[in-house]
Design brief:
The protein is of the alpha/beta class and 367 residues long. The chain folds into two domains: 190 residues, Rossmann fold (3-Layer(aba) Sandwich), CATH 3.40.50.2000; 154 residues, Glycogen Phosphorylase B (Rossmann fold). It has 16 helices and 13 strands. The protein has a seven-stranded parallel β-sheet, with helices on both faces. Strand 5, helix 5 and strand 6 form a beta-alpha-beta unit. It is globular, with a radius of gyration of 20 Å. The protein starts with a strand and ends with a helix. The structure holds uridine-diphosphate-N-acetylglucosamine and uridine-5'-diphosphate. The site of uridine-diphosphate-N-acetylglucosamine has 19 residues, from helix 1, helix 5 and helix 11.
Length: 367
């Protein structure tokens, strides 16, 4: 079976890593690999610490095609990707195209393939925020509606798809991010030097990430978030903030900074091993990232989500995740609530760490 995998943004490298390593295993026991994976990197993310570091750390095969699309408006970026992916599909003639998550790279892959009548398989299907102002929500809905195989991480995702009339080809797999977290957490604990590098110790810092368009592109929200980080950091522990390049740019453009001498530490975005080591040892995590919300849950660390809604509603129900508005006082209130929460961990919510195997078995059976 020849599969073209389309990836391009940070979380997709992490998700694809787990499936790629399963794909090369021959399930028919014939000795030679049964599957051929052609990896296409759209180039949506391109800085070393947003792209190549993940290929190195997670041993993802080098991309067979690098489209070099880079940054731009949604339309420009997606349009260029569609045209370039179409060229690759003409050349490669795959049996199936595999896409991940909800970025512009996901949508471009799904559109290019479906118009050529190549079956699309979507990993992380069925997630919904029910907020159509999010670019990711548009990407998810459209991708799900042209996919032949829909790999849903949770029961909630299955219900969301059924509500839109999608039941054929839907398979509950568990979450490939749990696979990755379980697979790499011991390696991270041994190999990562990040706590020493930052001069922090386990249980004595807070961790935060911000990159969602609704927060970075609204100076009022962005300023509220960073002033709340300052307030939180006055509680005895530093707030460590690995900065997404989008956020660094927006802070500079809007002249938003943390006060000199404050205990908020802005650092460059880190690799995956450093990130899960930081997450596993944090006292509390504050984020607007989808992946980081889940990883906080996997690590049994309370989380504040800087959004009005989340796709990962199970974490909220479990008392692990607190949604908040982005003004300083609301975030600080959520911080106080999250600091004394008692999390009802249900390890089965996101599967058992074998989602990638279920995905590859289903792909093989379906073709
Ligand atoms: C994208 C995804 C988002 C995902 C996130 C993961 C879309 C619509 N959004 O958002 O769902 O959560 O990736 O991180 O696809 N930039 C750099 N260097 C890079 C990459 C980006 O400087 O390597 C800067 C550029 O100024 C760029 C901006 O970040 O314009 C935003 O990048 P973009 O890929 O458009 O969106 P993300 O916010 O990264
Ligand atoms: N991540 C990372 N380094 C960072 C920030 C995040 O490796 O500096 C990882 C994080 O552990 C998670 C993934 O990136 O696995 C989440 O991606 P991101 O927050 O960019 O996007 P989202 O999940 O919101 O789509």
């Amino acid at each position: 079976m020849k599969i073209v995998t389309i990836i391009g943004a940070r979380p997709q490298f992490i998700k694809a890593a787990m499936v790629s390593r399963e794909l090369v295993k021959c399930k028919k026991g014939a000795g030679a690999p049964c599957n051929q994976e052609i990896v296409v990197h759209t180039g949506q993310h391109y800085d070393y610490n947003m792209s190549k570091v993940f290929f190195e750390e997670l041993a993802i095969p080098e991309p067979d095609h690098h489209l070099g699309v880079g940054s731009g408006s949604h339309g420009h970026m997606t349009g260029q990707m569609i045209a370039k992916i179409e060229d690759v599909l003409f050349d490669e003639k795959p049996d199936l195209v595999l896409v991940y998550g909800d970025t512009n790279s996901t949508l471009a892959g799904a559109i290019a393939a479906s118009k050529l009548h190549i079956p699309v398989a979507h990993v992380e299907a069925g997630l919904r925020s029910f907020n159509r102002r999010m670019p990711e929500e548009i990407n998810r809905v459209l991708t799900d509606h042209v996919s032949k195989l829909l790999f849903a991480p949770t029961g909630t995702a299955i219900t969301n798809l059924a509500r839109e009339g999608i039941t054929d080809g839907v398979i509950q797999t568990g979450d490939v991010m749990l696979d990755a977290f379980m697979h790499f957490k011991t390696k991270a604990a041994i190999d990562s030097q990040i706590l020493d590098t930052l001069g922090i110790t386990a249980g004595s810092y807070y961790l935060a990430t911000v990159h969602r368009q609704e927060n970075t592109d609204d100076p009022h929200r962005l300023a509220g978030i960073f002033s709340a980080f300052e307030e939180i950091s006055n509680n005895g522990h530093p707030v460590i903030v690995p900065l997404h390049p989008r956020t660094r740019k927006s802070l500079q453009q809007n002249d938003i900074s943390v006060a000199q001498g404050s205990n908020v530490r802005l650092v460059e975005a880190v690799g995956y091993l450093d990130m899960i080591q930081l997450e596993a040892n944090a006292t509390l995590i504050c984020t607007d990232s989808g992946g980081v919300q889940k990883e906080a849950y996997f690590a049994n660390v309370p989380c504040i989500t800087l959004r009005d809604e989340t796709e990962w509603v199970e974490t909220v129900d479990a008392g692990a995740n607190f949604l908040t508005d982005t003004d300083k006082q609301s975030i600080f209130n959520a911080f106080k609530q999250a600091s004394c929460t008692s999390i009802k961990l249900d390890p089965a919510l996101y599967g058992n760490g074998h989602a990638a195997e279920i995905i590859v078995d289903s792909l093989t059976e379906s073709l």
